[in-house]
Amino acid sequence: DEPFPVQYVTWLGNLAQGNWGFSPILREPVLPLLLARVPVTAELAIYSVLIFIPLGLLAGVVAAQKARSSADGAFRLAAFVGTSLPPFVFGLLLLAVFYVALGWFGPWRLGMDNDLFVRSAQFHTVTGLLTIDGLLNGRPDISLDALRHLVLPVLTLSLAHWATLARITRAGVLDELDRVYIISARARGLPSRAVVWRHAFRNALIPALNSTALSAASLVTGVFVVESVFGFHGLSELVTISLAFTPDVPMAVGFAVFSVLLVLPLMFVLDLVQALVDPRVREGIASE
Q1: Secondary-structure percent of the chain, ordered helix, strand, coil, rounded to 5
Q2: Domain 21-279 is found in CATH 3.50.50.60
Q3: What is the pTM of this model?
Q4: What are the pLDDT digits (tens) for 85-120?
Q5: CA neighbours within 13 Å on the CB side: how many for 129?
């Protein structure tokens, strides 16, 4: 019955104290439910970032160096497919080939035997990341099994972000290679590799960093479809269960707040990286 401003202040105070509400569907507090599922989603997102950023930058630079060649044409086709193909379709195709037909990689986080051991009292969860906790428990076979089961979902999650980053990097490097300072550097006899990587790539990195920031932030929501396809019991399953039949407002609000708290520090770090790379950003910060 309190006025809305008072209710809002009370809600903020509860958030700060860790009281994020109670889920009427799952009959548990919201924050512990979210924290229990975070490692599953985080493991997918972390390995996807480690894959698509270096490969996207490298592919973009190489494609720019070989512009208008057959290799560049193949790259542009792959990038077009990567940005056009829905993640769930790509994931199902990978499962059909590498799980059903070849039996190399499978869904879920672990094989059946290792999954039973992880759920037993003998296994001690430290980080929630199976690739790390397996090593901490003296079971490298579990870490390797977890890595093997991450291959397909990480590829699925990384494809579109790789394609976007690579296309932006290619366009940026091509634009820099036509500038006067690059032509002057070539005329002075500077090696081609130094011209591309030390000068053109560094200046083309600014728009690529902006793309990386947006891609990394979108992983928080983009991972939902991938988790569903590959049977990972992460945040997507939690939110789906809580919202499938009856609207679970505390869970929906809690997930929204949690997503913001994850994305904001990431954007701050990427802003710092951009300031380190681009002197113009540092000068703008200093002038303010």
Answers
A1: 80, 0, 20
A2: no
A3: 0.86
A4: 988 899 999 999 999 999 999 899 999 899 999 999
A5: 13
